[in-house]
Design brief:
Length: 165
């Protein structure tokens, strides 16, 4: 599976490190922090890359902002709960909608169900998730000027697309 990801600034990783004492009780704590814009299942890379270049042509850079810590009590996939950093970004929502219209949406994760976020940890108790979500954080704002095509098979970025595209 491939995904189109928004690179997050190093400040997000530092925030995750600051929250680690609250994340330690979870089954899995993320060491890589990503913000997924769109997932692509059963796609050949070279074709996807060219389709994305066309779809993103003229796409301007946009603003994004980490606002607070939240959790999904019952996520559509994987272990629950999922603790995450909530992201506000009208530009990201618009881009996600356009890509979901063009490529289709994955049920339960995309389209109307899309929630921009940076996963911190998953698996564990809801009480622990509530404890993390109660932590106050300073918002982190940045300009998204690049998108990365991530290859989950190799756990690496396979291509980057600069914005404006």
């Amino acid at each position: 599976m491939y995904s189109l990801n928004v690179p997050v600034p190093g400040r997000v990783a530092r925030l995750a490190s600051d929250l680690f004492p609250y994340l330690a009780p979870f089954d899995r704590v993320r060491d890589r922090h990503t913000l997924v814009c769109k997932r692509f299942e059963d796609t050949e890379f070279d074709r996807l890359r060219e389709q994305l270049r066309r779809a993103l042509a003229g796409q301007p850079a946009f603003e994004a902002r980490v606002t607070d810590v939240r959790f999904f009590e019952d996520p559509p996939r994987g272990a629950a709960p999922v603790v995450y950093l909530a992201v506000e970004s009208p530009g990201l929502f618009d881009l996600h909608r356009a890509l979901a219209d063009e490529f289709g949406a994955i049920d339960g994760l995309e389209g109307d169900d899309y929630v921009p976020h940076v996963t911190l940890a998953r698996g564990g108790s809801v009480a622990d998730a509530r404890a993390v979500a109660s932590q106050s954080i300073d918002p982190i704002e940045w300009t998204v000027s690049q998108l990365d095509v991530y290859d989950s098979s190799f756990r690496e970025t396979a291509a980057s697309i600069s914005l404006p595209a």
